[in-house]
């Protein structure tokens, strides 16, 4: 087991915010790049925040993972990527966090293991335990042997609410291409990390403000599971009626509005910056 090396993606390019602009870190879903999943939401946040994202091992811009890792090590990789960023004004700088699916699992791990780093979190389409260990082990074996194209048909059904494929075929196709192009061994290792992830007994320790967002049509993580996560952290829940599992792609403006509102409610620091 080892901490994976992750690549940070810079979203903010117009106009460049000040060095003291609040930092927002975005996390992806299994099989997606953070760019395809979050770009539309990130554009809506530009000007008020510096927005970055990270890619899973073997997905998007991140290199493949040569060894297995668990969710805690994945969270450590996120912190290391943020601290390596040349535009980060200080090491161990606090930030706002938003993550979808496994990106939300990493968010929970960050809240627990690095509580001083996360000012507030928005956790989308995720839960304190996602799926069953046996199911993740089976998927890991299949993908390791036959590759990520085995997951495209099922993911197209699970990821999107009815009508999204017809409404935005470009976004849907980009996400499915990301899945097909993901490194099979790294995808399998993320599955294994999900299979061992279970923080249901720990979430009462979270003291940062949490907003949990569910898609009404989400099959992998139904709204009831998202509501349980919110209750366990003392947070609140919002259900988006027209979305399923990949909420930042399906409802980018609504997700951006939720992020901005949640983060704006956090008191400013003594220098006037929220992060």
From TrEMBL:
Gene3D superfamilies: alpha/beta hydrolase. One of its GO terms (molecular function) is catalytic activity. InterPro entries: AB_hydrolase_1, AB_hydrolase_fold, AB_hydrolase_sf. SUPFAM superfamilies: alpha/beta-Hydrolases. It comes from the Bacteria. Residues 38-257 form the AB hydrolase-1 domain. Pfam families: Abhydrolase_6. Signal peptide: none annotated. Transmembrane segments: none annotated. PANTHER family: MONOACYLGLYCEROL LIPASE. This is AB hydrolase-1 domain-containing protein.
